[in-house]
Amino acid sequence: MARRKISLDFESRSRCDLRACGSYRYWEDTSTKILVLAVREWPLSDKSKKVLSWDVRREPNEAVELLREAIVDGWEIHAYNSQFEWGGLKYKCPEQLGLPVPDINNLRCTAAVCRSAGLQPRLGQVAEFLKLPVQKDKAGATLIQKFSIPQKNTGEFIEWNDDVELTIGGRRMRAADAFQMFVDYCETDVLTEMSVAHAMRMFALKGYALDSFLLTARLNDRGVPVDVEALGNAMRLYKEQEKELTAKFRALTGLAPAQNARVLEWCKERGYPAKSLNKASREAHGKDGRLTPECRAALDIKGRLSFAAIKKIPAMLDWVMADGKIRGSFKWCGAQKTWRWTSEGPQWQNMKKPPKRLRPRIEDAFQDVKRGVDLLSFELAYGDPYETIASMARYFVRFPDRGLLDLDFTSVEAMILPALIDCNRLLEKFRRGEDTYVDTGTALAKTLKEKYDVPFEINRDTAKTVVLATQFQGGWHAVFTATGQTWKREWCEAAAAVIRKENPEFPKGWRAFQDAFVEALDNPGRWVKATRHVKFGYSEKPPFPRMVMVLPSGRPIVMPLPEKDPMTMVRVDTINPLDNEVTSKNWERLNGHEEDEEKMRDRLSLDWPSRNNRKVIGKWFHTWELSYWGHTEGVNYGRVHTYGGSALQSATQGTGVDLLALGAINAEAAGFEPFFLVHDQCLTPDDGRKDEFERAMCIVPDWFKGFPLSASADSVRSYCKT
User: Fold this and answer.
1) Residues β-bridged to residue 677
2) Fewest Cβ atoms nearer than 10 Å: which of 8, 150, 457, 693?
3) pLDDT category, 611, cuts 50, 70, 90?
4) CA–CA separation, 359 and 391 (whole Å)
């Protein structure tokens, strides 16, 4: 018999800023209060079941009792962005409604289902994409502004019975009538969420996917411990430095650093050539000798004040709760192409590493901060306070009274790639404990030293950088970027060629993944194997057309609305008209397929009328431009372009996610309490069982038998190993 389930939604109010502090800190705040609760039992098709609601105007009623029954009897509790509703269930329902706290393992999230299927994360966006008959009430945003946050002019909340008139959707109405609209809006959200869940039922989380989601829910509930005292002292230094730099900037420019338009105009008057003050523009032009000294100094200060890594310190303090833990910061399936975790608030995935000069002293710097060192002494001892504090961000993750076990998988993605493309040659090297980057470094050194006499050593780290840049179809520009834009183009091209020559299985894998994508798209309803471990399938069935790439674990990566467009890639040399020398060699794209060379040359003359210095050297190939509907940047969705190497990279990273999640689940079963998952790393409180933790994390699943999974755990004082 199927488990009974409900869908619910809360509307609330608080003086705490939800976006700034996260859902857990929001619900813990004493000013936070549930205003409306809406709940409905499934199934959606049963018209006798209505949305029930409770609000602060009433005593507990049938809606509260339905929720109580669901909690006590262990029903599934569904919501959209269920972590928010979980906070209300855990922190406010017991005190406001006298309800017990439910089992977190009964939680289900429709937003997570949508993310796993490659769709937009917002309820209204998904409902529109699916063209559902029930849509999100667009008046809700206005109602939230009226009832959920303090008003800017008074600093007080609008109450439902206030004797005021409000403007909602262009209509004037009494506060009581507007509040009833708020209740109706909450009820509509429940119906919209249920409609989305029903439309997406074939994507409902189950098996490993559900286990991974619930693991993340438990991990978020445990929280990341941080040293609040040290964070407070770091924040004091941060503010003092900010005040000092702002004063210097005003003295130089007469402007505030945040006045970007006026600052840009001021800089242009002093020789600054760029149209933006973003990081790339500042770094490209900030040391230009044509700038006045004042302009260079102002740009330097602007850059220091815009230093993103330092922003993690106030973010940690905004999110930390009364018990010294940061909760709710990990987002399951935040990266939809791989299902990697992303994070909100402190952004654990991109913590700055200390520069080489600071690495031996970073623990000392942390201890000085913890002791309350003054800004001048700190700067004299360690240099730039911003850089030093940002570099120790990892050090704030620690228990005050115990250590951590910090576990890293060993070269896991480097091993997953050959495993996926059946490159047994590389896998055998890993099994024997050989360092593949050393062999690659030898090959790179032979080519680059002999052919180009590069003025630096080609060591293991250099080889690793080049391999990581090129193994998923990256070309010379990927090498150029990975090496800090310091290599000449011919060096980068030669390095990429070496990697392809040393690892011929890589290009074969890229082609296999691209061909499988195209073949699946041409044959709806049929599975096409890219390799022994990965297959593609295309379906045109509701709720939307989609390409599915199935990983070794059986988990699908969904690419909605896939398309292919023909294109021809043409090898073109750029000629300097003065000396007739070749200055660059590129592959250029033409839309469509052109089989005839003469016609191709005619097209090129039409496509490039002002580029007479281009010469086609007679090499071209026909391929497809592949794309799907997905996440582009920020909160935006649109056409995402992909190719064989990109799909292989998603499969590699996605399989790494699966191994890490299963390892953490096995660790929980062994009695550990993991609270931190980033890249290939897992943290848990140190209870003296380091070896057992390693064994639990390295259990190889049946779907990846023979994979040489290994890891090393260290007993450490903080997230950053010491």
Assistant:
1) 682
2) 457
3) very low
4) 9
pLDDT tens-place string over residues 190-215: 999 999 999 999 999 999 999 999 99
* Partners of 8 in beta bridges: 39
> Quick check: bond before 43 cis, omega within 30?
yes
Are 494 and 448 spatial neighbours (Cβ–Cβ below 8 Å)? yes
| Integer Cα distance of 72 and 88 in angstroms | 16
Per-residue pLDDT tens digits for 416-442: 999 999 999 999 999 988 888 888 888
Query: Which pTM does this prediction carry?
Result: 0.92
User: Could you give phi then psi for residue 18, rounded to 5 degrees?
Assistant: -60, -45
Any idea what the Cα angle at residue 405 is, between residues 403 and 406, rounded to 5°? 120
Class at the top of the CATH hierarchy for domain 5-204: alpha beta
Residue 709 in tokens: 């999974």
Q: Do the beta carbons of residue 515 and residue 521 sit within 8 Å?
A: no
DSSP state of 484: T
Pairing between β-strand 76-79 and β-strand 107-109 as defined by DSSP bridges? parallel
Q: What is the mean pLDDT of residues 551-557?
A: 96
Q: In terms of Cα–Cα distance, which of 543, 636, 623, 541 is closest to 587?
A: 623
Torsion of CA 59, 60, 63, 66, to 10 degrees: -160
Total residue length of the chain: 722
- Which tokens is 80 given? 């959209």
Sign of CA dihedral 186, 85, 134, 74: negative
Task: Note if the bond before 543 is cis, omega within 30 degrees.
Answer: yes
Q: Find out whether 378 and 368 touch, Cβ atoms under 8 Å.
A: yes
CA trace torsion 652, 351, 279, 488 (10° rounding): -50
Q: Where are the beta strands (DSSP E) in 42-175?
A: 52-55, 76-79, 107-109, 165-168, 171-174
* Among 411, 478, 476, residue whose Cα is nearest residue 438: 411
3-state helix, strand, coil in the chain (%, to 5): 50, 20, 35
DSSP states of 664-701: HHHHHHTT----EEETTEEEEE--S-HHHHHHHHTPPP
Helix axes 505-522, 489-502, angle to 10 degrees: 80
> Which of 209, 3, 221, 1 minimizes the C-alpha distance to 106?
3
Domain map of the chain by residue range?
Answer: 5-204, 227-319+355-391, 424-502
